[in-house]
Amino acid sequence: MRRRLVRPGIYQKVEVGFLQELYSIISDPQRIKTEGIAEKYVTDNLGRLQGTCDALVFPVSTEEVSGVMKWAYANSVQVTPRGAGTNLVGSTVPEHGGIVLDLSLMNRIVELDEDTLTVTVEPGVLLADLQAYVEARGLFYPPDPGEKQATIGGNISTNAGGMRAVKYGVTRDYVRGLTAVLPSGEVIHTGGKVVKDSSGLSLKHLLIGSEGTLGIITECVLKLIPKPAFVMGALVPFDSLKTGIDAVIRLIHENVGPTAIEFMERKVVALGERFMGVSFPYPEASAYILLSFDGNSEGEVRSNAERARQSVVRSGALDFLLLEDKETLDEVWKVRGALVKAVEAVSEQEPVDIVVPINKTADFIAYANKVEQESGVQLISFGHAGDGNVHLCVVRGERDAEAWRKDLKAVMSRIYGKSHELGGLTSGEHGIGLSKKPYFQKATDPAVIAAMKQIKDALDDRHILNTGKIF
Amino acid sequence: MRRRLVRPGIYQKVEVGFLQELYSIISDPQRIKTEGIAEKYVTDNLGRLQGTCDALVFPVSTEEVSGVMKWAYANSVQVTPRGAGTNLVGSTVPEHGGIVLDLSLMNRIVELDEDTLTVTVEPGVLLADLQAYVEARGLFYPPDPGEKQATIGGNISTNAGGMRAVKYGVTRDYVRGLTAVLPSGEVIHTGGKVVKDSSGLSLKHLLIGSEGTLGIITECVLKLIPKPAFVMGALVPFDSLKTGIDAVIRLIHENVGPTAIEFMERKVVALGERFMGVSFPYPEASAYILLSFDGNSEGEVRSNAERARQSVVRSGALDFLLLEDKETLDEVWKVRGALVKAVEAVSEQEPVDIVVPINKTADFIAYANKVEQESGVQLISFGHAGDGNVHLCVVRGERDAEAWRKDLKAVMSRIYGKSHELGGLTSGEHGIGLSKKPYFQKATDPAVIAAMKQIKDALDDRHILNTGKIF
Q1: What is the DSSP string of B304-372?
Q2: ipTM confidence
């Protein structure tokens, strides 16, 4: 590997003539665009942050990605990888120009290996497509982030979480092996189809959640499980969110293995109802807990649901509405899934996905409600009660740009400060990217940030890969 | 952080006078030993590799560890951390002299937090003590490596696996947060009591399995689960190991959630029987699969065991002996647990813990049997059929030192070569340390090793922490 002493941060602008070499790496000139590049390629799903892009490249193989990176390394060109661009924190924004590397054409399902219960995919495969593919074959990929049009590469890069994390864990727990291209263009293989791995430093786990700052994932071996045969849900109304959250903590001790434990305050349910044209029972409830259960035997699932019922009723639930038929269950989950969109239908919002120790969830939300009252900025919360991962929509309303910037900053400071004080972290599943950098920086030990930077410097000595994200 | 340009590899010998500063860091002079240091402190559990040690230090707090590392960093003194010294690959051998840092006095259980289902412990707590502590309180720490006298810090440093990995995963999956001292002496906190974490590069996951090469773990937040109320086992004899392993692959597809799936060939069971003074049924079987099941309801556990019975009988099991009473179950597991000692009672042996994709387990063992026949070196295999993690004892027998060195090298080359060819890795749970370095080096992409070294260089620029291990 060549290592020239070029100061990081000085990047070559990619002029048209300069691109000639790239045409020998990317076989089809159609897959290099230098003009008429759509705006979505220089931003993320929220579109608030914008970068610039000299050339948009669509590689179709690990070799092409490696070729591009070798070229970029040699020439000090900045590269920003992206999948479907569903990111919410600016991780895909090409802040320093250069090349945007769109991996969406690398969307093949390479191999389903039923013996080892693994599926090998390229990073551009969409979550929805992967889920459909494996479920049609009696298998199951448990991670279930709300955004199904995200790519698997993107899910891995942010260590996406989702609804089923309570029982099944997060994306990290389903990555068995990764092929990745390092900033130097070197290709590495980490992990594999094996289950256990104590063979040196875990580059795999370092890459997971690194938001494309250390390497570009070009192939993923994912763990599958047999598809659970029975699924059931329950909607549990409470007269206060605090009672609901306390009930969840007791429920987790009952060992009834819920797949998902979500909470929704009444005010967000009201938006969801309006948005989806449905209505929830118990409109007088101030909060709902939404549960689901799955398993391979109906008896086991029913028995778990019944034990859950007994537990939450003891803890003060107003009712326990079993959702047995798939249609009702799907409808309720659709409302849950549409909450962000329901909020956005009313106003621009800034998403927060802090995570606190599960027994601090109610304290955090109480604090958010206090901030809402004191600041006049509407804060809508819902999320994963089973793991303390709270989604908070900070609602812009009618504010002009200046007022919004000021109010948002003030609210965010308080919110992230509180999360930190409660032993929480900045992000449970969205990542840090650009937009959460200041809060992450403030909430995190300088020694931790310094160590992260040292690792970045070590693997990307020219700072050419997605520079400026996270730290 | 000071960073002087000292060439890594040039270490200061710790003379007595030079230690004065250390006495101001470690409050009690009794906790610094420079004379009469027992031999166990310069080796590992196998005692085959030996280092040297100028001073043995027993810190009692993160602050003391930090103080020692700052001093060592400033003076370019090599530091080798250790727990109970049960390591099998030389990770605790102080190859470059200097300080041995024994963390066994840091053995407090700091906090049990039942709300978040976490226990916070110092790294010197023994696995056996942790298991007993939480189980007495109705809770459960699932990782279950064979060696119960290992420390939790050691378990994390090798990402120890164990019997229950099939259902519950490995040590990595139960580490929520870590406090660690970096080679510079800086203290970092990563993770916490939170369940999800997408907040920057995962230093936590990088430290797990790093064998004390990147930092010294000084506090661990571990995930617990409620203790399963029912446990049951089954001993399943087969007429060939291949039939047994194929049955396991089918069994995993049945979704009956076994806690453990172990395999034992007849020849190792015979040693275990003799060693423990018991006898297994079906002495004519050439292999056994040992299963266990647990859960919170007896009906569920029984139903899973019954479905497992049907599955393995369909796959050609000779019988399915349900182990219902705890005594019989414990006795059979004791034999399984004593296999290494049973082998060692007969001869010195070199342990292998390769991991292959689960459907390659039978191929790997068939190859090991072939190597045994061709080389005349006895190879005894058993291990974790549910995750492809094969333990192989390479038996010395009556060989003199020279013949043993030669034969061992030849056998190991073939064994590790085959594992690599089958898509396997060098270690599933023991780590690489010193003794597996040559095989790891040979089986691993140079780019992967280079990236690991870059990370090591970045976090330990003076190479003062457990230098020479892994890579």
Answers
A1: HHHHHHHHHHHTT-S--EEE-SHHHHHHHHHHHHTHHHHHHHHS-EEEE--B--GGGHHHHHHHHHHHH
A2: 0.95
